[in-house]
Amino acid sequence: MRNRKGGSRPTYPTPGCWPPSKPWSLPPFRRRARETSRSTTRDGSPVERCLTAFGPPPSDDVGKATSPGAHTNSEDFMHRNPAANELPRASASRIVGLDVARTLAICGMVFVHFAMVLSHSDMTGPWLARMTDSLAGRPAALFMVLAGIGVTLRLQGQARNTGPIRKTLLKRGLFLFAAGIVNLVVWPGDILRVYGIAYVAAAWLLLARSWQLWSATLTVVLSFVILIFFVDFETNWDFSRFHYADLWTPSGALLNLFYNGFRSVLPWLALMFLGMLVGRQDLRATRVRRRMFVMGAALWLAAAASSVGLMNYFRAHPAGMDDETIVALFGTRSLPAMPLFLASSTGSALMVIMACVHLTENNARRGTWLEAAAATGQMAFTWYIAHIVVVAMLDIATDGRGTVPATVTLASLVGFCLMMLVLSCNYRRRFRYGPLERALRSFAP
Questions:
Q1: Which helix (H) or strand (E) holds 385?
Q2: How far is CA 2 from the centre of its chain?
Q3: How many domains is the chain built from?
Q4: Do residues 62 and 93 make contact, with C-beta atoms less than 8 angstroms apart?
Q5: Distance between CA atoms of residues 395 and 118, nearest Å
Q6: What gap in Å lies between CA 366 and CA 98, rounded to an integer?
């Protein structure tokens, strides 16, 4: 739009709306003046309110490590010191609840992996095995949905200038893929390679319409289901030892990455696309959060009921299938990740995310526990690699027997999670980014 002097009037993205480049209906100075005059929730001097209205907008970089403390834009503008090596203040654009959800995801991974390595023997107690079996795969699904939400939120504040964002996503995808190759040496259940591929795909579909993302999601899921009937999922697998043969051959590596690995591109890529769709909603709106929480609960319950009904039916009418095949096709286990598991894990992820966001958005006084939870989520990459190293060392120390009592395993993983919270909180008070987060940003700012 041209102004009276012949120049172009800038456009400003509407927070929480899609597409992210809709102009405001009022000129910038009038809109800011109206917001300032109507402000009833901000305390402080007229100078601070003026800085709030005319100060710089909050950062659009959702990957930016910030503290979970709640501060106004005026405080951030008046006290920001980029050179200071201290805990940065949270901008208004950062949704702290997403960091808390990442913390729950990493704690879920710690639970599953500690239990798998220390207490996988039948002698350690069936209750821990049942909990591990029901939780396996869901923390990874939660991480993938959160990654999709973060990709979409990066667009807020960008007026269709997606070139730098695409470049960053591609470089981060390459970094995570390379880190996953290294991680695969010590941990066969690596998921970083899948995240790397997912970031590349997300960069390609960054501005896709919602129906295109839904189409991509269904295509990924259906492709995996079709492959199940033509390619044996147990190829190269020895599930008694969780060993994958020919992993370092070209054919085995591709098959593991795209089809039958612990976590493979097909169908886990669908969760990234679903997260991108979720990120297009206004997660700060209470009504939106409640609606999505109810949708997640309904999806989780529907998947569980459908799984029970289908397994009971085919056990009565097996049609040539044994019980193991029936559970694999119609159960909600993560290996293989069939549609019912994807529906169930998506539902549980939505419930966790919406609950965390609702808790943080409605908690004006964020205590130390919330600060620690958010700080841990902001260092999720570092803690993922750290807990893998610890799990590998425990596996060597126990000689892979898995006979540690369930109570000892439970105490160990709870202690590790508490240690993560304490160390993360203290570390983030002194440093801006976690060690591996800093390396990632150095490669892909």
A1: helix 380-397
A2: 42
A3: 3
A4: yes
A5: 7
A6: 15
> What's the pLDDT score for residue 21?
44
> Could you tell me how many helices (H) and strands (E) the chain has, helices first?
18, 2
Which residue, of 236, 257, 280, is where some domain finishes? 280
User: Based on C-alpha coordinates, what's the Rg of the chain?
Assistant: 23
Residues in the chain: 445
pTM: 0.78
Q: Which parts of the chain register pLDDT below 70?
A: 1-93, 121-125, 157-160, 364-366
Q: Is residue 4 part of a domain?
A: no
Report yes or no on 122 lying in a domain. Answer: yes
CB atoms within 10 A of CB 212: 12
Round to the nearest angstrom and report the end-to-end CA distance of the chain.
32
216 and 249 together in one domain? yes
Maximum CA extent, the chain: 81
Least Cα distance to 155 among 85, 108, 208 occurs for: 208
Residue reference for tokens 């710089």: 56
Range(s) of the domain holding residue 403:
99-136+366-434
Find out whether 354 and 289 touch, Cβ atoms under 8 Å. yes
